[in-house]
Amino acid sequence: MELFSDETLAIFVPILLYWVYSGMYMALGQSMDKYRLHSRKEEDSNNMVSKGEVVKVVLLQQLVQAAVAAVVFTLTGDSSSTVTYHKEPQGSSSSSYYYSYLTLVRQFLVAMIVLDGWQYAWHRYMHLNRFLYRHIHSWHHRLVVPYAFGAQYNHPVEGLLLDTVGGALAFVVSGMSPRASTFFYSLSVIKGVDLHCGLLLPGNVFHLCFWNNTAYHDVHHQLRGSRFNFSQPFFVTWDKVFGTHMPYVLEERPGGGLQARPLIAAKATHNGEKI
């Protein structure tokens, strides 16, 4: 008898990983300052919300996520799982069933595309609509200098709409099982933390696999980047399709560390232009 159901794991494992993974980044401390995209002083002075308030808002969002996930799993039941199972050949030492890995890969890709598309559309619209930006999305941009556990710091309405509903939609459309969704939601959470961690560490597997990395999203959080780089959490495809992709250059930051400069800003500086 299993101690926890697949649905329970899918609800709570990603939340646990959020705090463990972001905590690992925060615990690195000054030893990794040479890879920081902003100085510690900027993190303390430029942000417009305290870390204590960030923790409270993130916990509220995760509580809502857990409640919605429980409702979705209850409504979909076993019908959400369309994973193909194959029985191992007779004579095998095990008579258990195993996932069709091709089906699982397809479901992950579908879920990633759905979540990326959903978040891009709403994220961009919240920047274009002055009312939505001022009253809802501006909460997230109070973190001018992002850090790991601030990844899910959003207005509760935005957290529900972009993350919670987006995740539920990806689950339903892809047809993955609750067990598979545990891994997908965990990947999504870790990727979101990685985008906001403020550290461009060498050998980071996510930076090797995805162009949408810490520096790419940092450009969006910069004031000049607010009209660009809306894509999250996985690919940069929608930015390229709709003309909101802003390349950047990595430079050494005065005083140590790195900085991601939007390419348009770097070119203007090189040409002596004022922007």
UniProtKB/TrEMBL annotation:
Residue stretches spanning the membrane: 12-33
Reactions catalysed: a long-chain fatty aldehyde + 2 NADPH + O2 + H(+) = a long-chain alkane + formate + 2 NADP(+) + H2O
Domain Fatty acid hydroxylase: 108-244
PANTHER family: STEROL DESATURASE (PTHR11863)
EC number assigned by the record: 4.1.99.5
Name listed for the protein in its UniProt record: aldehyde oxygenase (deformylating)
Similarity remark: Belongs to the sterol desaturase family.
Record's keyword annotation contains Plastid: no
Pfam families attached to this UniProt entry: FA_hydroxylase
Domain of life where this protein originates: Eukaryota
Chief location of this protein within or outside the cell: endoplasmic reticulum
Membrane topology category: Multi-pass membrane protein
GO cellular component: endoplasmic reticulum membrane
Entry keyword set: Endoplasmic reticulum, Lyase, Membrane, NADP, Transmembrane, Transmembrane helix
Protein's cellular compartments: Endoplasmic reticulum membrane
Molecular function terms, GO-annotated: aldehyde oxygenase (deformylating) activity; iron ion binding; oxidoreductase activity
Uppermost EC category: lyase
